Amino acid sequence: MIGILAFSMLSFVVAEFSDDPDEHRFTTDSVLLDLPPVQQDLTLPSLAPEVVPLAAKPAKHWREIRATVKSGDSLAVILIRNGLSAQDVHAVSNSKPIGSRLRSIFPGQELTFFVDAQGTLQRLNYSTGPLDTLEYHRTDAGFTGRLVSNEPERVLAYKHGTIDHSLFVASQRAGLSDGMTMRLAQIFQWDVDFVLDIRPGDAFFVLYEDLYYNDEFIGYGDILAAEFVNQGDDYRAMQYVDTTGTKDYYAPSGASMRKAFLRTPVEFSRISSNFNLRRVHPLFKTVQPHRGIDYAAPRGTPILAAGDGRIATASKTQANGNYIVIQHGEQFVTKYLHLSKFGRGVKRGAKVSQGQVIGLVGATGWATAPHLHYEFLKNQVHRKPRTVSLPDAEPIASSEMNRFKDHVNQYAVLLDDYKNQVTVALAR
To answer: What is the Cα gyration radius of the chain?
Structure first.
């Protein structure tokens, strides 16, 4: 009994005073496990690719050659530069099922070759990122390839910012990357115009994931929940992955953050001409109704389809220049004028999806400078694109609602707790 008691006390001391930093790492799983249990399954859906076990280690007599892709390099250039044959280039780049991915390699990425004693290429590894590697192995028939993916550690992170000039300035000051800022803006783009609606004092709160692999930060994961305060109005979005694996953002009520149409189908620098039925035309100096909005933007700026639909017209006239008309069901039509060129596959009858690039900004037709003239029609009547009431996208299905609430309630608890911490800190 004395021995058992001594062993128990020793185990307690070791466990209580362990200074292993990984034991207390603030991970998504550890935080969610601390929350009170609920009735439904609260397992977060996996957002990472399936982890594939690594292949067997190369034979000991193989020679390993590492190469970093430089500007202007191709697979052929790199292999020949390292004394390998053109036949190997052809064999590996035409291998199934993923040999074609070697035809588009990018500067900074790494290639590793394993060559046998006779100088024959036996294996090639192509690292496309910190988590993914394409492996190609020689077989009797040539080469075969596969994707090897590793699972990162997902660590919860929070950011808060108050806007005094622009969203990007506030985000940089808060420590958000430009890429994450763009993702944040895209979530709320149907409710907030980040060019025209932003005011000093607007604020954001973001709950997201930092990604680590082998204890090294490798990038950002998903935004799990976010809140944006614009001119006193609060907008909150929660990420949800439904039972089919479709991932999107919803309000806590289950309404989609998306609308059936984008408010602005181009990233613009300013509005050069508003909707005005008594506008004086800048070229002809006569009163001509302006039934749309002119978004000034640099030549070549991508123009996006405002909503899902089918192209009714993709043509050119003297007045409109290159222009596109999209029919969205029976009620809605959008028009895009003065394009410098059409997007790939844009032709009459083609289907387009919301956010798809359909063309580039230009100054064709009766235009004095590069801009997009955009029109929005409902039941054949022109409406002001910036103020027209837009129909909502599909909400959470009723069959998913209980599961949805269980998932987003976890994010809501974490976001509310962080907001309370920020409020207390700012009050000091």
So the answer is: 28
* 273 CB burial (10 A radius; 0-12, 13-18, 19+): middle
Domains and CATH numbers, the chain: 63-149 (3.10.450.350), 153-258+398-427 (3.10.450.350), 270-383 (2.70.70.10)
Let me know: does 322 contact 359? Beta carbons within 8 Å.
Answer: yes
pTM: 0.65
What integer pLDDT is reported at residue 60 of this predicted model?
67
Q: Give me the pLDDT at residue 284, please.
A: 56
Sign of the four-CA dihedral 410, 413, 414, 416 = positive
Residue 194 CA to residue 230 CA, distance in Å, equals 10
Over residues 235-265, the pLDDT tens digits come to 999 999 999 998 999 999 999 999 889 888 9
Residue 312: strand pairing partners: none
H helix runs in 137-199, sequence order = 167-174, 178-188
- Phi, psi for residue 14 in degrees, rounded to 5: -60, -45
Q: How many CB atoms lie within 10 A of CB 354?
A: 18
Give the max Cα distance, the chain.
Answer: 104
Output phi, psi for 57, to 5 deg.
-65, 145
**Predicted local distance difference test score (pLDDT) of residue 59:** 67
The model's pLDDT over 322-333, given as tens digits with 9 standing for 90+, comes to 999 999 999 999
Q: Which residue has the tokens 């997201």?
A: 208
CB atoms within 10 A of CB 61: 8
Could you tell me if 203 and 162 are in contact, meaning their C-beta atoms sit under 8 angstroms apart? yes
Q: How confident is the model at residue 398 (pLDDT cuts 50, 70, 90)?
A: very high
